[in-house]
Amino acid sequence: MRAAQPRSRQQTLALRRQLVGSSCKLFFSNDPVKIVKAKGQYMYDENGRQYLDCINNVAHVGHCHPDIVKAAHEQNQLLNTNSRYLHDNLVDYAERLSKTLPEKLCIFYFLNSGSEANDLALRLARQYTKHEDVIVLDHAYHGHLTSLIDISPYKFRNLEGQKEWVHVAPVPDTYRGLYREDHEDAVTAYADEVKNTIERAHKRGRKIAAFFVESLPSVGGQIIPPAGYFQKVAEHVHKAGGIFIADEIQVGFGRVGKHFWAFQLQGEDFIPDIVTMGKPIGNGHPLACVATTKEIAEAFAATGVEYFNTFGGNPVSCAIGLAVLDVIEKEHLQAHATEVGNFLMKILKEQQIKHPIIGDVRGCGLFIGVDLIKDQAERTPATAEAEDLITRLKERYILLSTDGPGRNVLKFKPPMCFSMEDAKFVVETIDKILTDMEKECLNQ
Fold first, then answer.
1. How far is CA 313 from CA 38, 221, 289, 316, in A?
2. Which of 123, 196, 231, 390 is the most buried (most CB within 10 A)?
3. What is the mean pLDDT of the chain?
4. What is residue 427's predicted lDDT score, i.e. its pLDDT?
């Protein structure tokens, strides 16, 4: 039963601490924000204060977009059931998605979360190749199911450790990775690391099922793999009898601006064998998808075991998915992501010249990372300073967070309606805060 009177923030916090597992973390845990409403790129607390949301890539076309709300409401009034019945929404949605992808990615499975999608991708890969092992990038995160924790160094290094069937390759990070911006051929060097990983696995009698990678590693620090890397890696993986899985759960659906899918940044000659989708696909509604080839789908079906997902591909979810695609197209959000993202990158790079703590600004469209460092020579992560900065931003009603193994990379993944004015406001505020921090440091 709902409380008759709205609870205070402290009452809600006390109940959460009492009833919800402590491993479920809050943003700004020392002084969490209570959010009661959101619209577009803005969120509102219980006192009506407006916060600019720079991190909610799930609310892809904007919080509570009226077209999405309408699509859900109208379909909910008609029917919501499972996919064992014929329904046009399911096939209409699959057809619309197919038009955004390379022709060979023409078979679709619908699910409820990115974790479910990545788990299915793993099953598909193993059934098709008859191999077990998986290569992932260091610091990767692919979901919270047991199968995915096992292929997420970001998680398993703090748990039971690395399984014998998991192989970890270096992140193709040209700023702080093994091969940097001054390397003569970082693309080949990083791809050769995958080749070497495969060879070491083969010497141990292991066989590779898949190379599993975020098209743009997010938890790893908002990394932009150099163009051509995926092609070279795919060549090595295919030669070993494995397949290439592109995890688009964080970065798909036009976020990178110039392309609908982030893997397309690698070039027209690259096509993954499986693509997984989640988060922005439903604008906050639980929806996910796996796209693959006929050959892989047929190998999966050959087991004779049905794949059934109770809520996957239900009429309401598909209506919402269709509405998201409509809004992206109608509001020209891909072009908008390019325009605003380019402007945001430009003014952040201007701050990089002014503030030595900004070591690198990287990104594409509205997926941008700002790498904060303690020193230019060693590029030591400025972890404490990054935490201080996002706390001070929150006090000025801007929601931003950090990522990367050093928790020192400011991550920008806002709703796609994020504007030029929003970008300017955030960067001006960051400039003021960094200036204050520099003065405080000098006075110590």
1. 26, 32, 9, 8
2. 390
3. 96
4. 98
**pLDDT tens-digit map of 131-179:** 999 999 999 999 999 899 999 998 888 888 899 999 999 999 999 999 9
pLDDT of residue 226 exceeding 90, the answer is yes
Which pLDDT does position 114 carry in this prediction?
96
**What integer is the mean pLDDT of 246-271?**
97
SS3 of the chain: helix, strand, coil, percent, to 5: 40, 15, 45
Please report the pLDDT score of residue 157 as a whole number.
Answer: 83
What's residue 442's pLDDT?
87
The secondary structure of 127-182 as a DSSP string is: HHH---EEEEETT----SSHHHHTT-HHHHTTTT---TTEEEE----TTTSSS-TT
- CA separation for the pair 137, 122 (Å, rounded): 15
- Residues in contact with 397: Cβ distance below 8 Å, sequence separation at least 6, in sequence order: 49, 50, 51, 52
Q: Which of 99, 106, 90 is nearest to 309 (CA)?
A: 90
Distance CA 281, CA 265 (A): 19
DSSP letter assigned to residue 216:
S
Beta strands in 302-435 (DSSP E): 358-364, 367-372, 398-399, 401-403, 409-412
Q: What is the pLDDT of residue 444?
A: 77
Residue 436: other Cβ atoms inside 10 A: 11
Give yes or no for a contact between 274 and 246, defined as CB atoms under 8 angstroms apart: yes
Residue for token pair 């209409």: 92
Do residues 124 and 303 touch, judged by C-beta distance below 8 A? Answer: no
**What tokens appear for 59 in the block?**
């609310």
Which of the four pLDDT bands, split at 50, 70 and 90, describes residue 441?
A: confident
What is the distance, to the nearest Å, from the Cα of residue 440 to the centroid of all Cα atoms in its chain?
35
* Nearest alpha-carbon partner for 6 in 34, 43, 30, 42: 34
Place of tokens 């590029």: 379
Using DSSP's 3-state secondary structure scheme, residue 307 falls into: coil
Tokens of 260: 């609908």
**Separation between Cα atoms, residue 214 and residue 10, nearest integer Å:** 38
Buried b or exposed e, range 112-141, using 16+ CB within 10 angstroms: bbbbbbbbbbbbbbbbbbebbbbbbbbbbb
pTM: 0.96
Q: Under DSSP, is residue 433 helix (H, G, I), strand (E, B) or coil?
A: helix
Q: What does the pLDDT read at residue 2? A: 59
Average pLDDT over residues 67-71: 98
Order of strands across the sheet that contains 401-403: 358-364, 367-372, 409-412, 401-403
